[in-house]
Amino acid sequence: MKKLLAAFLTALLWAPASWAQDSTEMAISLDEQINQAISPVTDVIAGVIFYSVPVNDEIAIPVIVVWLVVAALFATIYFNFISVRAFGHAVELVKGDYSDPKDAGEVSHFQALATALSGTVGLGNIAGVAIAVSIGGPGATFWMILAGFLGMSLKFAECTLGVKYRNEYADGSVSGGPMYYLSKGLAEKGMGGLGKVLAVFFAICCIAGSLGGGNMFQANQSFQQFVNVTGGADSFMADKGWLFGLIVAALVGVVIIGGIQSIAKVTEKVVPFMAVIYCSAALIIIVMNIDQVPSAIGAIIGGAFNPEGVAGGAIGALIQGFRRAAFSNEAGIGSASIAHSAVRTKEPITEGLVALHEPFIDTVVICTMTALVIVITGTYTAGGGMSGVELTSLAFESAFSWFPYILAVAVILFAFSTMLSWSYYGAKCWTYLFGESRSMDLLFKLIFCIFVVIGASMNLGPVIDFSDSAIFAMSIANIIGLYILFPVVKQELTSYWSRLKSGEIKKYAASESGA
Amino acid sequence: MTDTLLVGIDGSEGGARAADFAAQRAKESQARLVVAYVIEWSPYSFNTPQENEVRHKRREEEISRAESDVVGPVLESLKNQGVEATGVVRHGHAADVLSHLAKEEKVNQVFIGRRGLTKMQALLFGSTAGTLVQISPVPVTVIP
What is the mean pLDDT of chain A? Predict the structure, then answer.
């Protein structure tokens, strides 16, 4: 473990060293220097993770995307479309119909789902969708929705396992997630060695993911939108991503290092309202342009199979859709399993069922709304090479001129809450690798804050490449483990389902829910 | 069969007055008294992962603190007065939990203090007594 840490620190120290070399060229801004120093590293990582098999001259399919899609498809069929047949039961579970009133005061299904969602719903839903549509055309939306639907079964499996194999400590606190089900679950199957290796590999990737997708991408895109609304290229902040990064890093630091939980609490309470405002605005735009909805749906479905002007045609659209869906809802990635593990339940399967809703809300509902707004307003064609949050902002602006300001607030809050969640995921993996000590925890949190600054300073291109690679790399170990542990989930499901059907598992009367 | 009375306390003076009033009634009718303290909690709140991780521990702490600091002293004084009393600490919405307890303990009557809210305050913050009167399965006595 010491070696691992040493390697990581060397990598970290290497980066500032190369800035120093660059700083002799005073002509370029600090942001550009940071970009130049970091992007060669991210390029290499992205090249490895997104190793692609060329299909023809135009298009190459990244193996990792196929890996995720096949797993999601397999889970959907293996669990016999659990996402459809248990959808209603999952709603009852979230409502608390099956919660023992004696457990009032413990973490409820709703709370576990809401906490996981606050880590999932973020810039992937706002900026990621814009990236998918600008590169893959409207058709990417179709594949994104399909990927969201398939992802539900995968999320179901990983969250069930997260609860089943979590660690419960003497003081009653709990720790769960892929690193625990990989090591403990595979050991049960007599593959303890493989389990350990996968758990460590997952933890390393999760740390990178928390610094990338859970941090740099969020910081980068919230800075982008901040510059957007404060005057674009003329903004006083335009070239000062590092300054914006420092401010955000300070705020994040105050919460995760300073332990000022009140800021986190306020964020957790404001973010759901921002999500409601965002979705309402999207719905209003859709309703205002209701006559264009059929043609937009036509463009989405037509573009999925026969797109015009998209590099790689249908496969190009498919890759973009699947990529952005996985980035947004994190199904198969394993991260949400860490958050879901905190629930109080006697049946691990119930949390898995509740987690079905996560890709549904995230991708099938929220991402689709963003995509519809972008397609209806047509900004993706008129955007002139615009991508990410800028494009989404432009789409909303074409309906409400003042909306970019609201979006800026929403984006920064979403980014902030996603960063807080991911700093937790990262810290869990960090302490899993290096031991639970305060100094180790602190070290990770410091590194996390540094990456906020780096993320805000860099260009979107290398940031999204690194974020994608890190997040997708998590799926390598996670999904190998899932294939081995799918039968365990199936066993739990069969047992639970038969007891539910026989009436052994009953609803508590509504009035007895105690809340 | 002896009667069972339920009193809701919240550590305030109003709650203490309700407990005294209920104790008088219990003595007069030789009834058993259930003293309930509700820790305000909702299963639909939004929490940080850090809060969730230690939630189980916090809950135990909240319950033991309520038992020792609020319910304990009341039970002690009831015992001195010769009233047979038991204490209950639950999480949830006060009016819902009291109404639920009334059913569970087969209570004959519920006693509760009031906070003396103005119309506006009650509208904003909700009135436990007001809600309980509406949903309770048994008669409710509100002590001013």
Answer: 87
pLDDT in tens, A411-439: 999 999 999 999 999 999 999 999 888 89
Domain count, chain A: 1
CATH code at A151? Answer: 1.20.1740.10
Residue A509 resides in a domain: no
Class of domain B4-143: alpha beta
Q: Which of residues 51-110 of B touch A (CB under 8 A)?
A: 51-57, 59-60, 62-63, 90-93, 96-97, 99-100, 103
Query: Which of A92, A97, A99, A106 best tests the B interface by mutation, with the highest count of B CBs <10 A?
Result: A106
Q: Is A50 a domain residue?
A: yes
- In percent, the amount of chain A with pLDDT more than 90 equals 57
Instruction: Tally A–B CB contacts below 8 A.
Output: 112
CA count, 13 A, side-chain hemisphere, A514: 24
Closest-CA residue of B relative to A338 is: B49
pLDDT digits (tens, 9 = 90+) for A278-288: 999 999 999 99
B52 vs A514: CB contact, 8 Å cut-off? no
What phi, psi does A264 have (nearest 5°)?
Answer: -60, -40
Task: Supply the pLDDT for residue A8.
Answer: 52
Domain that holds residue A75: 29-56+64-501
Give the domain ranges of chain B. Answer: 4-143
Q: Could you tell me if residue A506 is inside a domain?
A: no
The confidence score (pLDDT) of residue A20 equals: 45
For residue A303, being part of any structural domain is answered with yes
* Cα(A269)–Cα(A274) distance, integer angstroms: 9
Burial of A504: CB neighbours in 10 Å, binned 0-12, 13-18, 19+:
exposed
How many helices (H) does chain A have, and how many strands (E)?
Answer: 26, 4
| Residue B54 with chain A: CB contacts under 8 Å | 172-173
Residue scoring higher pLDDT (A436 or A109): A109
- Statement: residue B90 has pLDDT above 90: yes
Q: Evaluate if pTM is beyond 0.90.
A: no
Q: Is the pLDDT of residue A7 over 70?
A: no
> DSSP letters of A458-502?
S-HHHHHHHHHHHHHHHHHHHHHHHHHHHHHHHHHHHHHHHHHHH
